[in-house]
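Progress against Task 2.4 (sequence-to-structure conversion) is shown through the following example record, which the project officer requested during the mid-term review.
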Amino acid sequence: MGGYGSGRRWNSKVTTSAYSRLDVRHWQRSGLLIVGRSFVCGAWDIEVLTCVKRNEPSMVRLYHGDGWRQQREPYRIWIEWTPCNYGGKRAWFVCPRGCGHRVAILYYGDSPACRHCYRLAYESQQDSAKYRALHRAQAIRMQLGGSASLMDPFPAKPKRMHWSTYRQLYAKAMAREEMFLGAMAGWLNKI
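Structure tokens generated for the chain above:
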């Protein structure tokens, strides 16, 4: 059925992109973490509660379903707050599965949990060496104001950038592009 390189590797993990996510950083930036507030995020109806202090939310209750409170038992997720270096506080979820990890993002399939409990990997962790080289070369090109395409000419030095910095970035990008193109040439020779 499949050709050369088809199928999933036996040692590959499921990635985070296969799951929906809840991001407490987005909620905090949007001003949704206010005690007594209710809002909808994806397939969840969410209530913000306090347990210890009156002015600081310390828990959210998640109800899954089409209607409000259709689920028998809501998921309770604790929120911890840590001080930032230059003032303010940052919110974190405490994983409800019991591992105790303090995370910014919870993924959900059957229930919310951190990526460690679901044993998820990031997509970039699945990349081979040649694709890591390609992505790094593309990132350097875009950092310099060009496009990600290797077929386009290399971008010119941006204003106010030192020539030594530009030469270093150029050398790194060319090395990564050569690594990727060499690996692709070897792959094409096999076919």
